[in-house]
UniProtKB/TrEMBL annotation:
Protein name: EamA domain-containing protein
GO CC annotation, single: membrane
Keywords: Membrane, Transmembrane, Transmembrane helix
Family matches, as InterPro entries: EamA_dom, EmrE-like
Length: 307
């Protein structure tokens, strides 16, 4: 695997792990945060998109090719649909059941990449991606196990398959799978977009659309000076900077490596998030089980890189 792509994904993993934990700190410091998530997302989106436009100016300009705007609009529209489906899934469903479903995305990306871009991983890459999917699922399902343990239930083997078995019964689960489908398609068109224009410029356009959607949602819910003031702090700025690197670096990696590898390696940030959450947030529940899942992901990472 291309070493430049590995380094870029490594930078993404660090910034994404910091991004996740600083959002957690923002939520803890601001009791009203949950009521203004769309506004917060819009604010950090504006800051990150501004940084991306500046980065595009200093990295060669727009560098547009023919039909560059087509994948940008497709990706932006898909991201808008993804945001709606994600919010819907988490608002009407159990987070501990919805979250594990996202772990299947790297596997579905392979099929979509073969169809849309004609990109195919090696045999070692296939095996590595399977390890990443398994490890991610183990990490994410721990939230459901914590809930079951607190209610006094004894764990059964069927509990490992609950997010799959609930597909027919739960609307939230169906929305979660819709998120997977949208993300699977979007990442391929996103790769196409950043290969047809300056990476920072194309990324700014794509996430600019998502930011506008979030601000529209926030406006519909009502924006006040108090709500804006409660979010104007150093954590918001840090999160915005982390978001800038989290969307720019992996898109740069698309210039050096195929989509299935980039999509799978991005899951490595979960390991760093777990470790940082342990030290920064003091989240120690099921740490050993989560860490085991993360180690399986690392094994997959090694296979992908060596393949």
């Amino acid at each position: 695997m291309n070493p430049v792509a590995v380094a870029l994904i490594g930078g993404f993993c660090i910034s994404e792990a910091l991004y996740n934990n600083f959002i957690g700190l923002q939520s803890k410091k601001n009791p009203d945060f949950q009521n203004h998530t769309a506004l917060f997302t819009g604010m950090i989106g504006c800051l990150a998109v501004s940084m991306l436009f500046v980065a595009s100016y200093f990295s060669g300009g727009m560098e547009l090719t023919s039909d560059w705007w087509v994948p940008v609009l497709i990706t932006g529209g898909l991201i808008g649909g993804y945001l709606y489906a994600e919010v819907k899934a988490f608002s009407i469903g159990d987070v501990s059941l919805v979250a594990p479903i996202a772990s299947t995305t790297p596997a579905s990306i392979i099929l979509a990449s073969m169809i849309i871009l004609g990109e195919m991983p090696s045999r070692m890459g296939w095996l590595g991606i399977c390890f990443v999917v398994t490890g991610t699922y183990i990490v994410n399902i721990q939230g459901y196990f914590e809930q079951r343990n607190s209610e006094g239930y004894v764990r059964r083997w069927r509990d490992w398959l609950v997010p799959l078995l609930m597909l027919k019964k739960s609307v939230a689960i169906r929305y979660a799978y819709l998120c997977v489908i949208i993300a699977t398609i979007a990442i391929n068109y996103e790769a196409m977009a950043v290969r047809r224009a300056n990476v920072a410029f194309a990324t700014a356009c794509i996430f600019g659309i998502g930011t506008i959607i979030n601000l529209a949602i926030a406006y519909r819910g009502g924006i006040t000076r108090k709500s804006i003031g409660s979010l104007m702090n150093r954590y918001t700025l840090v999160v915005a900077i982390c978001l800038f690197f989290s969307v720019w670096l992996p898109n740069l990696a698309f210039r050096y490596e195929i989509v299935p590898y980039v999509g799978a390696l991005k899951r490595f940030q979960i390991l760093l998030t777990i470790i940082l959450a342990y030290w920064i947030m003091g989240e120690k529940k099921n740490f050993k089980s989560r860490f085991v899942g993360a180690c399986i992901m690392v094994a997959g990472l090694v296979l992908i890189v060596s393949g």
